[in-house]
Design goal:
Length: about 260
């Protein structure tokens, strides 16, 4: 059964030349106005947005749905590289059963956008390679494909702006409460500031709900414990036929889109 994960699993990654942060605390760091950072959205069903600095480290992130909040209830991705952060979410999604290790056709979508709102192939390939390797090294018939931004094409044409920038503008509206008309003339660095600050505000608010956080951690533990036996059986079977299975997964990944 083929399934698209929305980390779809879909990873959406946007790279923009913007301002960086002076520290890595998800609730207290402020904008430094000194360097560049990027935007990354990772969708599995658990959906997570990231802001990444010019060196590839996560400086802030926000969970976009309840499943992500459960999955990351006791995890902090700040300070990880974007490869480590996305692989961590993928691993946790497998452990909690959001991704079935025995299901063939787990597909991740990754998109990368540069500071001009154009596709960034280098960033796409970097993240895709790392996630494909995770699938292969764990005996999971999953692969990464490139995400399109078709959803935003009509608005991009109407505004005469790059489609990637329109995606970020809409996110900034959601994070800040501003309207599209108020944001559309802003440069990319200001748009990213709005996204980042929205991330910080949401994380700070969530950390104040200690009871809810404890409930989410309990739900995550329950999901992981419930899936542990099945995952252990998968891993044992994979180890018995490791070389053969890895070759099959490699062929499956290479046939992406064929």
């Amino acid at each position: 059964m083929k399934k698209t994960i929305m980390i779809t699993m879909s990873v959406f990654l946007v790279v923009a030349s913007l301002v960086c942060l002076s520290a890595c605390d998800t609730t207290t760091n402020t904008i430094d106005e000194a360097a560049a950072y990027s935007y990354v959205s990772l969708k599995i069903n658990p959906e997570v947005d990231y802001v990444v600095d010019e060196n590839g480290f996560v400086v802030s992130y926000t969970c976009l749905n309840e499943d992500a909040e459960i999955l990351l209830a006791d995890v902090d991705l700040v300070g990880m590289t974007i490869e480590e952060a996305t692989a961590t979410v993928l691993r946790l999604a497998v452990e909690a059963g959001y991704i079935d290790a025995d299901t063939e056709g787990e597909e991740i979508e990754v998109g990368a956008i540069d500071e001009n709102g154009e596709v960034d192939t280098e960033c796409y390939e970097k993240v895709a390679k790392n996630l494909n390797e995770y699938f292969m090294n764990n005996g999971i018939f999953g692969r990464v494909s490139q995400q399109t931004l078709d959803l935003y094409l009509e608005q991009a044409e109407a505004l005469d702006l790059p489609v990637g920038k329109v995606k970020l503008m809409i996110l900034a509206c959601d994070r800040s409460g501003l309207t599209l008309d108020e944001i559309k003339e802003k440069p990319m660095n200001e748009i990213m500031k709005l996204i980042h600050q929205g991330n910080k505000n949401k994380v700070k608010a969530e950390k104040g709900h200690l009871i809810k956080t404890g409930q989410r951690k309990a739900l995550k533990d329950s999901k992981c414990n419930g899936n542990a036996q099945k995952l252990q059986a998968h891993n044992q079977k994979f180890e018995q036929n490791k070389e053969q299975v890895m070759a099959q997964i490699e062929a499956y990944q290479e046939n992406e889109g064929n």
